[in-house]
Amino acid sequence: MIAVWSLIIVSLQYRRLTQDQLTATWTFSDDGIAVSDAAGNKIIRPWSQIRMVKYSSKGVRVILIPMGSLWIPERFLADDDMVELKSLTKKLNLI
How many domains in the chain? Predict the structure, then answer.
C-alpha cells in the first residue's frame, strides 16, 4: 500500500514539471556536481557532501554524506563527462 501511495505522489509531482524542468544537464567541476535544467534552476552538490562514487555499466551512483545517494544514468553522460568525472573522483580519492 505504501508503494502505491509513493507512486501516486511521484507521478503527481512529475506532471507539474514543465518540459524545461525535465531537461537536465549534469556538469562536474572542482566545486562539485551540478545539475541544471533549461528553466534556469541549478543545484550544486559540493564534493565535501559526497562520500563515494561508484561506477557501473548502467550509470553512476553518488553516495552522499550523511546518507542518501544520487543516480546518474549512463545515457545522461557524454564520454567526455564520464572521463572528467572519473579523473575528479580519482583526484579527490572518492572511488
Answer: 1
Kindly tell me the burial class for residue 21, based on how many C-beta atoms sit within 10 Å of its own C-beta (0-12, 13-18, 19 or more).
middle
Please give the grid coordinates belonging to residue 75: 545515457
- CA angle, 84 as apex, 59 and 28 as ends, to 5°? 80
Residue 78 pLDDT class (50, 70, 90 cuts): confident
Alpha carbons 84 and 78: distance in angstroms, whole number? 10
Report the mean per-residue pLDDT for the chain.
Answer: 84
Tell me if residue 40 falls in helix, strand or coil: coil
Residue 5 DSSP symbol: H
Q: CATH number of the domain that 40 lies in?
A: 3.10.50
Beta strands across the sheet bearing 24-28: 24-28, 32-37, 42-46
Contact 43, 27 (CB under 8 A): no
